[in-house]
């Protein structure tokens, strides 16, 4: 029991790194994803092809490889570019590199979600908006975007939880600086000390589960707010079926 | 010109590179084996989730929701370690003498005789099983949903023919559910393919590890070609490799879905 509490205390520091990686990459990824979705739907062949290719490449390859690729690319540019600029310590730091790659990755996944939602926006509403003489930007702000975000929100919630789970591999690909270790590295070092796999990995899993549940709860609140114009769905009923 | 080609050809076919090419077998094996096991665990989980008996239903639901609520890397690392320790604990309880336990200084295993050395083959099998377990939880959800989309009339007809519940499940429901499960299963397969890049975390000398070794800067002419840090080039090759695998899988699943959807009147064929 004491060991369990010790682990809980030790990992309460570590989980902050995972939360940081997720929190730093989600807002930027969100904005980028909107542009990617618009680009994928754009009639301009160059923009269309580029965004399509980008989304396909980043969704079709493992995040682990993307981490290695971008980190080693940054390393090989170190002497030529970062060093003379005097920012090599900043650029090569995992706290910068991690969110950078996560942003590139999540933007592709979220962009695909938004693109799907964009295509599902009711045609008639857009036509009505055009009939009212709204400009392109008015159409987007007042008709397309509110529909899009409502359609995409459940899938986007899943993507955010997946992104949070993906922060587990950041430090397997990037170097650990000093005592800055996330949940997985902490669990692994603790395991290598006393070989108690069940305790340490379970505590790390508990933290991941807990944060995932919090994310689901918060995003659920936002979803309720987004859907406030609709009649409330029927409440969950507790009606256990012991034997069917 | 020809000299250049011969030069690069000999560089790309030296011993280290050949080992790299050979290590693709680990990735491919883990993907195929993990995929097959994921379907097996998915069927098992879905059957549990559909069970008439509450505790079994709970086990199925618990399995699919807990494993999906935890990062795949965590489970991927945890399962082989836990399995190894479990076996060592079992062996130790049989063969360790009190003297051997007293003589042991390390924290684990309880005595030196109980130590189980895992080679690449064992780790590869364990990695496939843990891939199967993790993505089996995703497949459970997919298959559970697909089982429910089989038209009820088909099941009623089977019951009317006097089939037992097991026969209805295995001969009608599971035979017909594949059409509905295929789109979801193709997504699970893509996830498995991407997860195979993690094999190097289990001490398997896989494509990622070799790419890192081959690309590392070399300053000794005796060791081979002198070059600076070329790792990003090797990782770029892997990046393209995975995109190609995804593209091939998409094409393959499209073909399978077209074939499986033949003769079935439904909107499942999108």
From TrEMBL, chain A:
Q: How does it sit in the membrane?
A: Multi-pass membrane protein
What highest taxon heads this organism's lineage? Bacteria
* Residues spanning the membrane: 15-39, 60-81, 87-109, 160-178, 198-223
Question: Which PROSITE patterns does this entry report, sorted A to Z?
Answer: ABC_TM1
Q: Which Gene3D superfamilies does the UniProt entry name for this protein? A: MetI-like
Per UniProt, subcellular location reads as:
Cell membrane
Keyword Membrane appears in the UniProt entry: yes
Q: Which residues form the ABC transmembrane type-1 domain?
A: 15-219
Which keywords, in A-to-Z order, does the entry hold?
Answer: Cell inner membrane, Cell membrane, Membrane, Transmembrane, Transmembrane helix, Transport
The protein's predominant localisation is membrane
tRNA-binding is among the record's keywords: no
Pfam families noted in UniProt? BPD_transp_1
Checking InterPro entries in the record gives:
ArtM/GltK/GlnP/TcyL/YhdX-like, MetI-like, MetI-like_sf
GO BP annotations listed: amino acid transport; transmembrane transport
Q: Name one GO cellular component term.
A: plasma membrane
Concerning its family, UniProt says: Belongs to the binding-protein-dependent transport system permease family.
Q: State what protein this is by name.
A: Histidine ABC transporter permease
Automatic annotation (TrEMBL), chain B:
Q: What membrane topology was assigned to this protein in its record?
A: Multi-pass membrane protein
Q: Where does this one sit in the cell? A: Cell membrane
Instruction: Enumerate the Gene Ontology biological process terms.
Output: transmembrane transport
Q: What would be one Pfam family of this protein?
A: BPD_transp_1
**InterPro entries for this protein:** ABC_transp_permease_HisMQ (IPR051613), MetI-like (IPR000515), MetI-like_sf (IPR035906)
What is this protein called in UniProt?
ABC transporter permease
Q: Which SUPFAM superfamilies match?
A: MetI-like
The coiled-coil regions, if any, are: none
Q: Which residues form the ABC transmembrane type-1 domain?
A: 24-253
> Which family would the database say this protein is a member of?
Belongs to the binding-protein-dependent transport system permease family.
**A Gene Ontology cellular-component term:** plasma membrane
Transmembrane stretches in the record are 20-46, 58-83, 123-143, 178-211, 231-249
| Primary subcellular site in the record, as a coarse category | membrane
Q: Which UniProt keywords apply?
A: Membrane, Transmembrane, Transmembrane helix, Transport
CDD domains named in the record: TM_PBP2
């Amino acid at each position: 029991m004491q060991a369990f509490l010790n682990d809980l205390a030790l990992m309460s520091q570590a989980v902050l790194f995972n939360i940081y990686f997720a929190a730093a990459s989600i807002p930027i990824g969100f904005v980028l994803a909107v542009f990617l979705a618009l680009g994928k739907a754009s009639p301009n062949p160059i923009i269309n092809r580029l965004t399509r290719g980008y989304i396909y490449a980043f969704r079709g390859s493992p995040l682990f490889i993307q981490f290695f690729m971008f980190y080693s690319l940054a390393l090989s540019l170190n002497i030529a570019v970062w060093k003379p600029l005097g920012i090599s310590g900043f650029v090569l730091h995992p706290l910068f590199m991690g969110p950078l790659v996560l942003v590139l990755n999540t933007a592709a996944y979220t962009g695909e979600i938004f693109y799907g939602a964009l295509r599902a926006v009711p045609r008639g509403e857009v036509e009505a908006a055009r009939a009212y003489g709204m400009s392109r930007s008015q159409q987007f702000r007042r008709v397309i975007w509110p529909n899009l975000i409502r359609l995409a929100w459940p899938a986007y919630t899943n993507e955010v939880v997946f992104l949070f789970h993906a922060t587990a591999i950041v430090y397997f690909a990037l170097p650990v600086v000093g005592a800055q270790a996330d949940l997985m590295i902490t669990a692994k070092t603790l395991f290598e000390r006393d070989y108690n796999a069940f305790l340490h990995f379970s505590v790390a899993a508990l933290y991941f589960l807990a944060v995932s549940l919090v994310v689901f709860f918060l995003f659920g609140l936002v979803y309720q707010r987004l859907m406030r114009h609709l009649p409330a769905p029927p409440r969950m009923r507790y009606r256990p079926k012991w034997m069917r | 010109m020809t000299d250049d080609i011969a030069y690069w050809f000999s560089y790309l076919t030296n011993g280290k590179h050949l080992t790299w090419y050979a290590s693709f077998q680990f990735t491919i094996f883990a993907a195929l084996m993990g995929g097959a096991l994921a379907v097996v665990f998915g069927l098992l989980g879905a059957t549990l989730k559909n069970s008439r008996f509450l505790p079994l239903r709970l086990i199925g639901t618990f399995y699919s929701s807990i494993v999906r609520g935890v990062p795949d890397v965590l489970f991927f690392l945890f399962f082989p370690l836990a399995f190894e320790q479990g076996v060592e604990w079992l062996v130790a309880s049989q063969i360790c003498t009190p003297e051997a336990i007293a003589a042991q200084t390390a924290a684990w295993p309880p005595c030196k005789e109980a130590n189980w050395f895992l080679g690449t083959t064992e780790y590869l099998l364990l990695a496939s099983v843990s891939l199967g377990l993790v993505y089996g939880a995703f497949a459970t959800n997919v298959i559970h949903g697909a089982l429910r989309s089989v038209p009820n009339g088909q099941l009623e007809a089977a019951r009317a023919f006097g089939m037992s519940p097991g026969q209805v499940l295995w001969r009608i429901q599971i035979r017909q559910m594949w059409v509905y499960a295929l789109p979801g299963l193709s997504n699970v397969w893509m996830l498995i393919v991407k997860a195979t890049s993690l094999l190097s975390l289990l001490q398997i000398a896989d494509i990622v590890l070799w790419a890192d070794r081959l690309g590392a800067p070399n300053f000794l002419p005796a060791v081979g070609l002198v070059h600076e840090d070329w790792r990003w080039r090797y990782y770029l090759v892997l990046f393209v490799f995975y995109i190609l695998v995804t593209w091939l899988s998409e094409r393959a699943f499209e073909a399978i879905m077209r074939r499986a959807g033949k003769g079935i009147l439904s909107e499942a064929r999108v």
